[in-house]
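Q: Got a minute? One more chain.
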Amino acid sequence: MTAPSSTPPPASHQASPHQASPREASPHEASRHRAGPKWASPKWASPKWASPKWASPHGASPHGASPLPSALPPLLRTSLARGRLEITAFFRDRESVIFTFSLPVILLVVFGEVFHGTIGTTGVAFRQYFTAGIIASGIMSATFVNVGASVAADRADGTLTRLAGTPMPPAAYFAGKAIGALAVAAGEAALLLAVGTAAFGLRLPATPGRWLTLGWVFVLGTASCAVLGLALSSLPRSPRGASAVFNLPYLVLSFISGVYVVFRDLPPLLQQVAALFPLKWLCQGLRSVFLPAAAAVAEPARSWELGRVALVLGAWFVAGLVLCMTTFRWLDRE
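A: Always. Here it is, folded:
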């Protein structure tokens, strides 16, 4: 006779007939238990900003803003993102905003109240002549001065050094600066135009042709002054020196380019010097938009010379691009 086995019977034989049999786990529950808790899943373990779309500068959107459409070319998408960042940074700096927008308005109001009379025999009020010139001067201030000073500050605080180590194309940085300058210049021009229209009788363009002229003169003038600011941004040795480097030529050109004085009344030598730079032609192009056709006789050539305006502004834009490629520095001298 064999001894009884000490091995207990299977658990299934020990279960009570009144005890419910264990329920088989559903596929969903099984996968959930295998994957672990919700916070441990890959979706929750990696934050949104750590995904490739947000980690890469090509799809990044600063300050939590919605990303730009991925259908855009990478360079264009990055340039637009940089432009939005430049606009946001500018309007967060209250001192820059107040100075940039208030100074031209103050000059317009003060000089508009001081100077009266008409331009020769044209019957055009000097206030209107001066308003067109101060709009051009404000555009140059918002582009040439602001862009050059901001790039010098980026170089001094190490921003350019950090950007140089990222996959961002260098062209996107330049395009972002240009987009920011275009937005600021458009806001300043609109503000000055509103003041000049309300206070000094400046008239808005009355024909589609004049609106078209306003568009290409503004874009070419903004672009040429902005790239010149980029090209000369390597001259200042510090952000403090940038103010002198950019404001000195800006102020000199403002006085000899027909902003504060009727251009034809300037000495011939100063007229020839001013004709070499874009501000004189930007002023002349804007006068052709806002002043009556009769005012053209007050120009040295007795016409608006819009073809030459486009040629000179376009040439300065190309020259500025060449200077940017040859003189721009990502690192500080020190």
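A: The chain has one domain: 75-327.
Q: Perfect, thanks.
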